[in-house]
Q: What sequence folds into this?
């Protein structure tokens, strides 16, 4: 195994196997992955900060076996920040917090291509910062259908005077976030809200939307997975790479862009590659900024 | 003694939740239906494939269905004369949803003429309110007092009475006095009645006196309809409508209403 010692922000890191091709059909090595995360770090770090990280590691590459790692590996450097979490059913667990560049690089050196985080911070695990609508197309539906649903959701929320943001999932779907950032909101609230929204969408657009998980009901429809609004669930972090054939990113889009891209009728246009993600972030800033900052209240809850 | 649930159980759907309060007391409660009218309701179906039918507004003049954005409310002031009013104008006078049932005064329920009674609900104690609830129900039962309050339900502000019935707190909306139609001229003028005639009526009434026992009465037509339906359902499987996403939206009533309103605007726009 080849090793290379580097210094990141004054911390010493030993990077391994930098030439390993992690996206073999595209030609994207671990060095490329590290470089992507280094450049995107100013944008992704605020979204990772203080959240119990779930690593999804692909040691043999994006097309091979992976494993989830919730516990922060025991062999971590002593400067990696952690949090203790304990849920009723589980025993206490130490998780990693990616609060700085050096931790991000260390985690990526473990080939954790995908970074998954909960909707709440580790210190207030029952208080989600946002409500998420995970739009997942069933067989026969695609990301363009998701875009239709997302645009309806945007208008539906704006009727309630709620701003929302959208990102690609980096797979086949879209994620719509409604920022809350209020200490009083609980997952019980966000679940009630997201469920009512999913059901009213299903009722009004029965040929396009389902609020139910059952596979046969999802055929040719977009499943609005409202159950993601739970303290035990995680979402792919905005700006995280996805382990697909190509290094695509879960990337925020402005609503106008989504409208325009969806209008082109080509699902591929709604996939954002690593270099494009960096270019967009550096030019436009963080389009998901509001998810962290904007304070909003779900009405009547 | 609690009333037994009816054979056709209906889940207690929470219509409103908040607190009952007066002076320093605050009891968290939920409002649920107390009566289900005996009407057997039917859906209108398309005989071709049994799809449920929807109501639409129809213009007899043009002989066509009118879309929602072409509809406005008019208040009839005379034959073919209307004053127009918009949704926004109506909304501007709609009171804010009540968070509490603030009892203003306690009255003797016997002073309220039955003609004022409108619609009854039960109040169910929420978590943490059980003890205060039991206490209030007990004291109100013993003193036969009811709490009078103003309360916004749906879009209207109601005058309501909170009273105790068999250990349970109930809420009844009361008619405003201006809603009660005058009874002038109904009662015939004074006529001479002989003591004998009076005595005979009194005697007859006394003979027919009984305790009020509602169980002895039932809506016979409803029962017969239900019997027919039960028999038909057993003999032949019910017809099936083609699947559509027709399910009620779950969630707090106000939130669901707000979502429906926003959805209506979204669909009008598209």
A:
């Amino acid at each position: 195994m080849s090793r290379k010692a580097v210094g990141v922000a004054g911390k010493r890191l030993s990077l391994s196997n930098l030439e390993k091709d992690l996206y073999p059909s595209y030609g994207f090595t671990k060095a490329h992955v590290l470089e992507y995360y280094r450049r995107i770090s100013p944008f992704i770090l605020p979204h990772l900060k203080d959240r119990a990280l779930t690593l999804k590691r692909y040691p043999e590459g994006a097309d091979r076996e992976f494993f989830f790692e919730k516990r922060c590996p025991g062999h971590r450097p002593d400067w990696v920040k952690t949090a203790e979490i304990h849920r009723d059913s589980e025993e206490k667990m130490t998780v990693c917090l990616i609060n700085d560049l050096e931790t991000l690089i260390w985690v990526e050196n473990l080939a954790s291509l995908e970074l998954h985080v909960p909707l709440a911070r580790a210190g207030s695990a029952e208080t989600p910062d946002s409500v998420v609508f995970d739009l997942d197309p069933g067989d026969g539906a695609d990301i363009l259908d998701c875009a239709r649903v997302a645009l309806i959701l945007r208008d539906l929320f704006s009727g309630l005077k709620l701003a929302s943001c959208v990102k690609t999932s980096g797979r086949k779907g879209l994620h719509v976030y409604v920022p809350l950032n209020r200490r009083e909101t609980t997952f019980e609230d966000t679940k009630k809200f997201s469920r009512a929204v999913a059901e009213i969408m299903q009722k009004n657009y029965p040929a396009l939307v389902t609020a139910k998980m059952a596979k046969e009901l999802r055929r040719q429809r977009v499943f609005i997975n409202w159950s993601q609004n739970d303290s035990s669930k995680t979402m792919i972090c905005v700006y995280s790479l996805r382990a697909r054939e190509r290094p695509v990113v879960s990337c925020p889009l402005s609503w106008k862009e989504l409208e325009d891209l969806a209008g082109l009728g080509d699902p591929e246009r709604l996939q954002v590659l690593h270099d494009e993600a960096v270019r967009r972030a550096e030019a436009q800033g963080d389009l998901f900024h509001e998810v962290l900052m904007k304070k909003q209240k779900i009405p009547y809850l | 003694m609690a009333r037994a649930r009816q054979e056709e159980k209906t889940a207690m759907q929470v219509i409103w939740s908040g607190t009952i309060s007066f002076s320093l007391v605050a009891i968290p409660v939920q409002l649920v239906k107390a009566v289900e009218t005996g009407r057997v309701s039917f859906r209108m179906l398309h005989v071709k494939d049994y799809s449920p039918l929807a109501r639409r507004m129809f213009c007899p003049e043009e002989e066509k269905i009118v879309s929602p954005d072409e509809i406005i409310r008019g208040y009839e002031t005379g034959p073919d004369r209307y004053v127009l009013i918009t949704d926004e104008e109506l909304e501007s006078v709609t009171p804010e949803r009540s968070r509490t049932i603030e009892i203003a005064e306690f009255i003797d329920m016997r002073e309220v003429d039955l003609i004022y009674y409108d619609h009854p609900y039960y109040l169910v104690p929420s978590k943490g309110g059980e003890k205060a609830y039991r206490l209030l129900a007990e004291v109100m039962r013993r003193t036969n007092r009811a709490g009078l309050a103003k309360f916004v339900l749906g879009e209207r502000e109601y005058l309501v009475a909170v009273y105790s019935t068999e250990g349970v707190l109930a809420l009844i909306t009361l008619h405003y006095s201006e809603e009660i139609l005058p009874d002038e001229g109904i009662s015939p003028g004074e006529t001479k009645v002989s003591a004998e005639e009076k005595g005979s009526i009194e005697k007859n009434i006394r003979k027919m006196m009984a305790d009020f026992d509602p169980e002895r009465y039932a809506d016979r037509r409803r029962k017969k309809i239900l019997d027919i339906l039960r028999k038909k359902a057993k003999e032949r499987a019910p017809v099936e409508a083609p699947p559509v996403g027709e399910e009620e939206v779950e969630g707090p009533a106000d939130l669901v209403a707000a979502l429906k309103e926003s959805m209506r605007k979204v669909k009008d726009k598209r």
Residues 200 and 218 of chain B are 31 Å apart (CA to CA). Residues 10-37+45-178+249-270 of chain B form a domain with the Ku70; Chain: A; Domain 2 fold (CATH 2.40.290.10). The interface with chain A takes residues 97, 244-252, 254-256, 258-263, 265-267, 269-270 of chain B (CB under 8 Å). Confidence is low (pLDDT under 50) at residues 5-10 of chain B.
